[in-house]
Amino acid sequence: MFIVTVEFEIDPAHLDAFRAAMSEQSRQSLAREADCHQFDVSYDSDRPVCCFLYEKYTDAPAFDSHLASDHFLTFNALVTPWVVSKTVRTWELAPADS
Fold first, then answer.
1. Residue 9 contacts by C-beta under 8 Å, 6 or more apart in sequence?
2. C-beta neighbour count of 17 within 10 angstroms
3. Which residues pair with 3 in a beta bridge?
4. b/e sequence 43-52, b meaning 16+ C-beta within 10 Å
5. CB–CB of 18/51 below 8 Å?
6. What is the value of pTM for the model shown?
7. E strand segments, the chain
8. How far apart are CA 14 and CA 81, in angstroms?
9. Which of 47, 66, 46 is nearest to 55 (CA)?
10. Which pLDDT does position 98 carry in this prediction?
């Protein structure tokens, strides 16, 4: 499995709108992408402007398809002006017996 983690810091003035858009993005990714197996969204209780994503895809090409999807492109265009910082990292899931 191919894992993606994303950390966002959001402009506080747009936090409510970001949360709504992110919730919809998570729902759309899981509903529309057969190779998206997990899309968890978390917020820091001490710093609500910090958002963390944990996404699981079949493989790297599945994530590339996600990035090219209409729903992602629409989401990204909407939220980019609200984002103070964004860090994306990718991982390969280790087998359970490692």
1. 49, 50, 51, 83, 84, 85, 86
2. 14
3. 56, 91
4. beeeeebbbe
5. yes
6. 0.93
7. 2-10, 36-43, 50-57, 83-92
8. 9
9. 66
10. 59
Map tokens 């939220």 to a residue. 79
Tokens of 3: 């894992």
Query: Is 15 exposed, middle or buried, given 0-12, 13-18 or 19+ CB atoms closer than 10 A?
Result: middle
Instruction: Give the residue carrying structure tokens 């994306």.
Output: 88
What are the tens digits of pLDDT across the range 15-29? 999 999 999 999 999
Asked whether the beta carbons of 7 and 52 are under 8 A apart, the reply is yes
Count helices and strands (H / E) in the chain: 3, 4
